[in-house]
Amino acid sequence: MTTTITICDTCKREGWDETTHKTDGELMADLIEAAASDTPVKTRRFSCLMGCDRACNVTIQAEGKLNYTLGQFTPTPEAAEAIVAYATLHADSTSGQVPYRDWPQAIKGHFTTRHPPLQTDE
């Protein structure tokens, strides 16, 4: 089961500077992709996770595991590295649940939702 980080590439934080020619979500995606390049975690971009009030948003998902939505990040290398570090712990977990004591400090306070795994039986 591969853990995937989905990054909203249309996120724009309050005060977004359009002169950068990239959305905050695109900047965050660039940083997360770089941080995840040598890890077992996959990344993908998606245009609109509908969490505009909490931009920048990401999801951490894997089949058969708890899935999470996180938001209200500033696109910085520290935030990206913490997201990837958490996703790596998620990948190593059988259920997707990571003990709070193991969470990287930079993701604490950023969790928005937790979703149960989809049932695979009928």
- H and E order: EHEEEHE
Number of strands: 5
Largest sheet, order of strands side by side?
Answer: 2-1-3-4-5
Helix content: 10-25%
Name the shape in a single word. Answer: globular
**Main beta sheet: strand number and arrangement?**
5 strands, mixed
Distance between the termini: 20 Å
Q: Extract low-pLDDT stretches.
A: none
Structural class: alpha+beta
DSSP strand content = 15-25%
How many helices does DSSP assign? 2
Average the pLDDT over all residues and give the rounded result.
Answer: 93
The whole-angstrom Rg is 14 Å
Describe the overall structure.
The chain has 122 residues and is α+β, with helices and mostly antiparallel strands. Helix content is 23%, strand content 19%. It is built from two helices and five strands, in the order βαβββαβ. It has a five-stranded mixed sheet, covered by helices on one side. 41% of the residues are buried.
